TrEMBL record:
The lineage of its organism: Bacteria, Pseudomonadati, Pseudomonadota, Gammaproteobacteria, Pseudomonadales. This is Siphovirus Gp157 family protein. Pfam families: Sipho_Gp157.
Length: 187
């Protein structure tokens, strides 16, 4: 089976040749384009089926990731519970160290930690201020579109002979609009 890009090239060549006055040639070209379009559609079907297979693999992988994450959470909780069980019993028995052939278990005193009872009463010199500044891309997009639409309207007026060049708004250097890749929708 021919590759999709090859079919695309053939179709483009035939479409370029279709601009002729010879009815017989036009009919032959149209027949050839219909045949290539059929092959193109079949290839597109195959690509969509391949895409669906890969999507199902991605879904299965996502499900496995969720299952493994849950298993990890359960195992981590078990480790914490077992360690806590040993710690509580060592504390109750007042045992600080257990020496075994493969490892040594030591009951270490916990670190001191600060518990803030009233945040409003903490002096300013003992606080940290956090803030973040980020561009508002929605507002920037709206402003850039507004400038583009204004300039397009002014350019149309200028093309019609009006002297309106002084009304053009300079596009900002801090951002620009860029169209993303087109997408395929399959329903």
């Amino acid at each position: 089976m021919t590759q999709l890009y090859a079919l695309t090239g053939k179709l483009a060549e035939l479409q370029a040749m279709a601009d002729t006055d010879d009815e017989g040639l036009k009919e032959a070209l149209q027949h050839a384009m219909d045949e290539i379009a059929g092959d193109f559609n079949e290839k597109a079907d195959n690509i969509v089926m391949l895409r669906r297979n890969i999507e199902s693999d991605v879904t299965a992988i996502d499900n496995e990731i969720e299952r493994l994450a849950e298993l990890k959470r359960i195992k981590s909780n078990s480790v914490t519970q077992i360690s806590d069980y040993l710690r509580r019993n060592m504390e109750a028995a007042n045992i600080k160290t257990i020496k075994r052939p493969l490892f040594t278990i030591t009951l270490a005193a916990g670190r001191e930690k600060v518990i803030v009872d009233n945040e409003d009463a903490v002096p300013d010199e003992l606080t940290v201020v956090k803030s973040s500044i980020a561009p508002d891309k929605t507002a920037i997009a709206a402003k850039l579109k507004e400038i583009r639409e204004h300039n397009e309207a002014v350019r149309k007026r200028m093309a019609a002979g009006e002297d309106a060049e002084h009304e053009l708004i300079e596009e900002p250097a801090y951002a620009h609009l860029e169209r993303g890749d087109s997408s395929i929708r399959i329903k």
